[in-house]
Amino acid sequence: MSLVAIINYGMCNLDSVVRAVEACGHSARMVERPRELTNASKIILPGVGSFWDGMDELEKRGFPDSLKREALECGVPFLGICLGMQLLASHGTEGGHRAGLSFIPGEVVRFEFDDPTLRVPHIGWNEVVQVKNNPLLENVQDGSDFYFVHSFHFTCREEYVLSRTFYGSEFVSMVGRDNIFGTQFHPEKSLHNGLKVLKSFLDLC
Description:
CATH architecture: 3-Layer(aba) Sandwich
């Protein structure tokens, strides 16, 4: 059984993520200090809130360097969820321009629609369409629904895009680069399909 480190940096209630990991047959540990990442077989960075506040809290706790070492240098499988996916970007614009973790080159920008019926934040269930081979979606039917809550979205080069979703226009709903993955949707709130995605990540070698 692998030990999954879930980063607790004060940006969301982690109980649902812990329960989802345990439902997939893995042991979860909430981590509040960088040194606690040692020996973790997987790392999950959840999050709800603004890009600026998320980076601020990670930096206050000294996480960025440790996360870069574990994910980029040691190759530990890493999953960012919602805000956690956005923090993988080079920079974000929510709350002001700020550098992100830079795990995946890209920018996080706000939804902008001409149609007044399209509300921001985007909240609810939407289809996730796979655009390239993606180990996290291999057990999920293409076009399945997942649960979203967000006002900003990740923009990046096509080589990093794993799936797209339509809300007013297409936006990136999953990103990936080597051992690093991100889901804009919440797998822990997306019922059986969400658990399939999470289990596929947790079962990565």
